[in-house]
């Protein structure tokens, strides 16, 4: 019973850290997509991540659309979490290169999950509220547009039917299974520590 409670506690901590990692990567992607900085949702994400990102921005300065401090913060948080959870589980000292590779896989998994959920939300909004002016809806469109625009150039909409989300979903699944999966296997650590 005690080991099951300990396992549940470790899973809860891992889930909470993954949610925060999700928010950190959302901050990174919002800046990358040049989403509206003054949008209330953007401001909430920035406020939630400021304590971790602001000190790192003194070392890793933002460069246009690219904010390396958010990525470094995500890698550090994920790496430290993996290390601590393995120690608490009694597995011992994990190999540092395995932790780094697993942290990279976790960050990439979070980025892919953000795009996946944003695409689903965008598709649902296009059906139920195509002209939505809610700040969250606007932000979703601003977030996915940088990955949708190149696909739309190759596969333009066919009247009212836009096939580009299908292509992007396939690309997300391929990157997730090939790249993130390969990194997770290369890390040699339990899979639950890597992804969501």
UniProtKB/TrEMBL annotation:
It comes from the Bacteria. The chain crosses the membrane at residues 12-30, 68-86, 98-129, 166-184. One of its GO terms (cellular component) is membrane. Pfam families: CCB3_YggT. InterPro entries: CCB3/YggT (IPR003425). Keywords: Membrane, Transmembrane, Transmembrane helix. Belongs to the YggT family. This is YggT family protein.
């Amino acid at each position: 019973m005690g080991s099951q409670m300990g396992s549940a506690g470790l899973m809860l901590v891992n889930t909470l850290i993954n949610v925060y990692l999700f928010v950190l990567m959302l901050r990174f992607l919002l800046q990358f997509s040049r989403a509206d900085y003054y949008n209330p949702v953007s401001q909430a994400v920035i406020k939630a991540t400021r304590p971790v990102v602001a000190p790192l921005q003194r070392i890793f300065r933002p460069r246009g659309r690219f904010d390396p401090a958010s990525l470094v913060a995500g890698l550090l948080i994920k790496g430290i979490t993996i290390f601590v959870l393995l120690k608490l589980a009694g597995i011992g000292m994990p190999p540092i290169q395995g932790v780094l590779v697993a942290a990279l896989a976790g960050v990439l998994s979070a980025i892919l999950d953000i795009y996946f959920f944003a695409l689903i939300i965008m598709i649902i909004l296009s059906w139920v509220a195509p002209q939505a002016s809610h700040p969250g809806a606007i932000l979703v469109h601003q977030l996915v547009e940088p990955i949708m625009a190149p696909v739309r150039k190759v596969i333009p909409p066919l009247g009212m039917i836009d096939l580009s989300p299908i292509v992007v979903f396939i690309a997300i699944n391929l990157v997730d299974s090939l790249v993130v999966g390969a990194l997770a296997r290369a890390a040699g650590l339990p899979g639950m520590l890597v992804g969501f």
